[in-house]
Amino acid sequence: MPINFTPLLLLAAVLASGGATAATPYSILRNEHTYTLQADGRYATGTEMLVRIDAASALAANREQDIPFDAGLERIKVLDAYVERPDGRRRHVPARAPRIVGAGEPTDDRKFRDRRLLRIPFDGLRAGDKLYYKVVATQFRQASLIPQFFGSWTTPPPGPYGVTIDQPEDMHLTTQARGFTADAQRTTRGRIITRWRYDGGDYPRMEVGSVNRTAYRDMLAASTFDSYAALARTFDQAASRQSTAGEQLAALARAVAAGLPDQRSKALAIHRWVQQHIRYRALYFGEGAWIPSRAADAILQTGWGDCKDHVMLMEAMLTAVGVASTPALIDWGGDLYTLPEVPMMYFNHVITYVPEIDLYLDATSKDIEGGYLPMDQLDKATLLTRTGAIGHTPAHQAGRIAKRYEVRLRDDGAATFTYQIDYSGHLAEAKRTIVRNASAGASRAWLKNMLTARGLLGSIKADYGDTATRSGDFRIGYEGTIKRFLPDGGSKSIAASSALWEDINNLVAGYEGDKKRTQPFRCEENDIVESASYLLPDTLTLDSVPQDVHISNDYFDYSARYVRTGRGLDIERHLRSRQSGSLLCTPQDYITAGAYIDAMWQDLQGQLALRQRQ
Description:
Radius of gyration: 29 Å
Number of strands: 34
CATH class of the largest domain: Mainly Beta
Largest sheet: 8 strands, mixed
Strand order of the largest sheet: 5-4-8-2-1-10-13-12
Distance between the termini: 63 Å
CATH topology of the largest domain: Immunoglobulin-like
Helix content: 10-25%
C-alpha cells in the first residue's frame, strides 16, 4: 500500500474557487501560503484564507476549519480569525475558542500520537458572510531524520492563489513553476523573499484514463535538494541503519532460502515469507512518514509495518543470504510517469529492487505473486536509494486470460452451459486472492450478477479450485442453467458472445470512453483468448453468422473466427493489446487506433441468426 507524504510536502488544500455553483456554494477570495525557512532546516508555515459563503449549503462544511500539524515538531498559533458580515462588521473568534483535537482514530502507538488538528470555530456563520483566518505553524526543533530539507509541491486551485517563500540569502532553492508568475522578489537583511501568484484558470476535464498530469498541468515546486541523488542519500542514511539483521532474523532468512539454487529463487522465497507474515499498517504522519524509522529486528517482532518497514525487513533478510538489494522509491496509485525537474519526494511508496537479476518486488502487495508488480506500478520511474540512480519498472509483464464457454440450447428456448476461465501470469494470484478473501455473501452476489448482467435468469454454481496456494495458474469453473436463452417468436437471433463474463466486449467498450482525447493516457496491456461453442437442438439451424475478422497494428492484434459445425457454431476471439516499450499513449495514438477500435466493436456486436428447420 502507498504511504502518504502530504504533511512533509506541505500540499496546500485544493479548494474550488470562482463564483458559487451547486458544486461549490462558496468562493475563495484569498488563499495565501507563506514558508519562512531557517538555515538549519526548520521552517514556519503560514496560511491565510478568506472564504465567502455564497449559499446556505456551504455552512455545515465551513463552520469549523481544521488545520493539520505535527505536535511533536510544530507549535501552531492563530494570528487572527473572524466572521465578516455583508455590511462589513467583524466578529472575531475569541482567543480561547480554537482547540487542538486528535486526527483520526486514537492509538497507543507513539508514532501515531503526534497527529493533531487545530480546529477554529466560526459560530454564527450565515450565508453571505466571509470567514477569515491566519495561522502559523512553527517548527520548534530540527527534524532529526531529515535536517536541512524543505520541499513544497502544490497543484493550485483554479482561483486566486499565492505562495511566498522567505529564505536565507545563501540557501540553495530549486524551483519550477508552470502557470505561476513570480510577481515579487526582494532581498532584505540577508534574506530573499519571493512570491508566486496564480490567477486561476479553467482546468480541463480529466479524460478517462488520463495520466502524467505533472507533465502538463499547472504546478509550483520548490526544494532544497539539488538532485534526486541527494534525496536518495537522505533516505539511505536512515535506511542503512534500519536494514541490518540480528542473529534471529539472519537465521530465519537462511532457513527460508535453504536449498535454493540461485539468487532469483532466494529473493522470491524471502519476498513470499515477508508478504505472508508481515501485516500492512500505514504510517501517514511525521518524519517517519517517508524516512525509515524502525529496525528490521523490531519489525519482525511486531509482525506489522508500512511499505518502508517491509523493504527494511526484505533488505535485511536478502543480505543475510547474500542477495544485494536497494529500496526503490516509486509513485503507486498516482499518475506520475515523468519525474519533474525539481527533485522532491513525489514518490508515495517504496519497494525492493534486486539489481543483479533486474527484479522489482513489492511485499506490501499481498495479492501479487513474486516476480510481478501491481498494474499501476508498471512503466514508472524509480529512485534507487542505494546508488541515487533513476530506475524504471518494466512496462509489460506476462499475463493471460483464456476462457472456454459452451452453451447447449434446448427446444424450449432454455439452455445449459459450462464456463471455464484460466488465469496465468500476474493475473493468477490477483484473482485467486479475490476469491480467497470473498465472503460467502459476496460470492453468491457475483455469481448471480454473472447472469443478470446479461439479462438472463437461471442458476449457476462455481468450482474455485485450489485457493490455498500462492503461486502458479488459477482456474475457475462454472456450470448452470438459463431459463430463457432464446427470444420468443419465430425468427430468432442471439448475441455472438464468446464468453459469459469479463469478456473482450467489456474491454473494447472501455476504449470508447473518450472519443476525443487531448491528454496522455495509459494503454493497458491485455491478452485474452475466448472460445465458445453453441450446440443447437435438432429443431434449429444457423441462418447467418458474422464474417471473420483479423486486425493487426502497433496497438492491437485482434481476430474473430466463426466456424460452423455439425451441431452449431464455434467462435474464437483473441485480443492482444500493447504498445511497444511503454504503457503511455498520446492523443495521436488514439486517433490512429480509433478505426481499429470501431472495427473490433462492430464485430463484438454481431448476431447469430437462427431459424426453425423445415
